[in-house]
TrEMBL record:
<keyword id="KW-1015">Disulfide bond</keyword>
<dbReference type="InterPro" id="IPR018378">
    <property type="entry name" value="C-type_lectin_CS"/>
</dbReference>
<dbReference type="InterPro" id="IPR050111">
    <property type="entry name" value="C-type_lectin/snaclec_domain"/>
</dbReference>
<protein>
    <submittedName>
        <fullName>C-type mannose receptor 2-like</fullName>
    </submittedName>
</protein>
<dbReference type="InterPro" id="IPR016186">
    <property type="entry name" value="C-type_lectin-like/link_sf"/>
</dbReference>
<feature type="domain" description="C-type lectin">
    <location>
        <begin position="30"/>
        <end position="149"/>
    </location>
</feature>
<feature type="signal peptide">
    <location>
        <begin position="1"/>
        <end position="18"/>
    </location>
</feature>
<keyword id="KW-0732">Signal</keyword>
<dbReference type="InterPro" id="IPR001304">
    <property type="entry name" value="C-type_lectin-like"/>
</dbReference>
<dbReference type="InterPro" id="IPR016187">
    <property type="entry name" value="CTDL_fold"/>
</dbReference>
<dbReference type="Pfam" id="PF00059">
    <property type="entry name" value="Lectin_C"/>
</dbReference>
Amino acid sequence: MWCLCLFLVIAELSLVSAQNCPRYWFRNNEESYCYRYFSGLQTWQKAQDICETYGANLASIKDESENDFVFKLQGYGCNNGIWIGLSDIVTEGTFKWFDGNALVYENWHVDEPDNNGDQDCVEIDGSRGVDYSKWNDAVCTDTKPFVCKWFLPL
């Protein structure tokens, strides 16, 4: 499945504008951000650390369009959970973006977040069929692919 996903992501990203973004980073239309999908499985904190090495953060999401863009970076037909930069690590039940952006859009699965088993970090969950690309709180030490978001200085 990973080989198919990788092939599909390469084909899909050829349709995305990379204007002014570094190599392997992709711009969502006219947004001032570049995004990069990392297929290597990492904990939430390790994923954030990797993003920071690029001057980026785990992706924050402001609307449905951005949510769909971030989820589709892994390629069509892929249903992996993807770490994003939302968590309630600091205060249980109060979700905040790591990059400080305001939480103006939410896309939770029904009955989520549920904090089942100390789940403090958020993934875009592609494993629930029709309800794909909804958010799920997950255990931060789980390992998942992730998406970094970098501000594009114009």
